[in-house]
Amino acid sequence: MPKPIPTLSKPLTNLQKATLSQWAKKGYTRAKELDLTDEKEADWRGRESIAACGRRISEATNGDYLVLLAHFQSLAGDSGKAFASTMRAQNDPKRQALHKLDSELTKAGLDRAYAEAICMSTYKCSIAQASPKQTWQLMYTIRNRRNSTHGQA
Length: 153
Known about the structure:
elongated
């Protein structure tokens, strides 16, 4: 079984939970106004959250955040923001991996061209074409090479 992408499996921060709760409240208010529910807000929010990602907000991880956000934005009637969140969710694993790769390159005092060369020789593609998993592996390669030159295990 492959290892989960580290940042996607972390629990949501309090700020993320608060943001989701605010959007859920807007969605619930709209559902009540349209007579789409007679549930209590907490029950409705839990049901909608589970419908969106299989977890309640309190159980959700970073990997669920944008899916939940888009769901509640849609229920609140903000289709533009829901669309933007959905598009971002589709690119999120890659975006996060690139962020960590860039961070490791900065720590090592290297630029993206160094990682690009490794990516081309290892995966026969550019970083832009690499999968999120390949990008994470590239980040770990950079980290391991930096650590070995600094005598760290």
